[in-house]
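testing teh design pipeline on a random one, pls ignore if ur not involved
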C-alpha cells in the first residue's frame, strides 16, 4: 500500500482540530516533505486559524488534486453560505469522496464533527455516514494505537439497544475485516482477544450472549486459522500481561473498550474505518468546544495519525 497524497477535511469550524494540526505541521516530525497534503475547508477559516496558531507558511490554493505540490500546504476552498456549517461540512466530505473515488493513492483524515447537528440522528457516527456515502456494507471501527487497538462490535449505540444488535454474523464479519486489514497493512496476522458482554461473561439466563452468540462466532473463526481467544471478562482484561500479548481487543460496545484504551493512552490513538474503499482516519476525540482557541490541546492524536500514514 502506497500513499502519496493526504486529504484533510477540516470539518467543524469551532474545533481544536486545526490547532493540533498546526502544532504538528510546525514540528520536526512533519511528513509534508514526503506527502502531498491537501486541506479541504474554507480558506478564510483556515487562514484565520493559521494566524492564531502562529503557522507562518502560506497556503497554496488549488482546484484539482493533480495540482498539489509537495512541501506546500495545499488547499481546496469550500464556501460557507450564511454560516450554514452543516452544509459546509457536508460539501467538504462530498468533495473529498469524489476525489477519493478517482484516486487510489490518497488517504483521508477528517476533523471531528458535532454529531447532534451534522449527523442529525440519521447516522450513529461518521463511520456509518461515510459507509453510506461510499456504498460500503460492513464498516468496522478500529481505535488504533501501536501498542494495542480496540474495536467495538456496536458503535455509538445506547446501552439498552446493544444486546439486540450483537449477532454471530456481525462478529464474524468484523473480525475477518480486522484480520485482513492487519495482514494487508502491517504484513502480519494479528492476535485478537474477544470480550464477553456480561460481567464475568456470566448471565442469570440459562443461555446468555456468550454461549449463544460470542463463543460460536469464535469457534467459526478459529476454523479459518484466525488467531483469537475469548470471551474474556472485560473487567480484568486490560492488564499489562494481556496488553503485551494481543494486537486487537474486540468488545461488544463502545465504552467497554474505548474507556480503558483512553485511560491507558490518553489521546495517543486514532479512529480508523475499515471496510471503506480508502484509508480513513480521524482523531480519537470530539471538537472540544470548551478548549477552542485556548492553545492547550494535546496534539497526540494527529501525531499518531501521521505516524500511521508513514508506517503504511
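output:
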Amino acid at each position: 500500500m502506497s500513499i502519496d497524497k493526504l486529504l484533510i477535511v477540516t470539518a467543524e469550524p469551532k474545533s481544536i482540530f486545526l490547532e493540533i494540526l498546526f502544532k504538528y505541521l510546525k514540528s520536526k516530525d512533519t511528513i509534508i516533505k514526503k506527502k502531498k497534503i491537501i486541506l479541504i475547508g474554507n480558506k478564510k477559516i483556515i487562514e484565520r486559524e493559521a494566524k492564531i496558531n502562529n503557522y507562518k507558511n502560506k497556503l497554496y490554493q488549488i482546484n484539482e488534486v493533480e495540482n498539489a505540490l509537495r512541501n506546500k500546504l495545499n488547499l481546496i476552498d469550500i464556501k460557507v453560505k450564511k454560516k450554514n456549517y452543516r452544509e459546509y461540512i457536508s460539501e467538504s466530505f462530498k468533495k473529498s469522496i469524489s476525489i477519493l473515488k478517482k484516486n487510489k493513492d490518497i488517504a483521508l483524515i477528517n476533523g471531528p464533527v458535532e454529531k447532534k447537528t451534522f449527523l442529525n440522528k440519521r447516522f450513529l457516527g461518521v463511520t456509518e455516514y461515510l459507509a453510506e456515502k461510499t456504498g460500503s456494507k460492513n464498516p468496522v471501527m478500529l481505535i488504533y494505537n501501536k501498542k494495542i487497538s480496540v474495536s467495538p462490535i456496536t458503535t455509538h449505540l445506547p446501552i439498552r439497544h446493544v444486546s439486540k444488535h450483537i449477532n454471530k454474523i456481525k462478529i464474524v464479519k468484523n473480525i475477518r475485516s480486522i484480520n485482513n486489514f492487519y495482514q494487508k497493512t502491517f504484513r502480519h496476522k494479528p492476535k485478537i482477544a474477544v470480550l464477553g458482554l456480561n460481567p464475568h461473561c456470566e448471565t442469570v439466563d440459562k443461555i446468555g450472549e456468550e454461549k449463544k452468540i460470542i463463543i460460536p462466532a469464535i469457534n467459526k473463526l478459529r476454523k479459518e486459522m484466525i488467531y483469537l481467544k475469548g470471551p474474556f471478562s472485560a473487567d480484568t482484561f486490560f492488564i499489562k500481561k494481556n496488553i503485551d500479548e494481543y494486537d486487537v481487543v474486540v468488545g461488544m460496545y463502545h465504552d467497554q473498550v474505548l474507556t480503558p484504551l483512553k485511560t491507558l493512552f490518553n489521546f495517543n490513538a486514532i479512529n480508523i474505518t475499515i471496510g471503506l474503499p480508502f484509508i480513513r482516519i480521524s482523531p480519537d476525540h470530539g471538537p472540544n468546544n470548551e478548549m477552542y482557541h485556548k492553545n492547550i490541546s494535546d496534539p497526540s492524536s494527529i501525531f499518531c495519525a501521521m505516524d500511521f500514514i508513514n508506517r503504511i
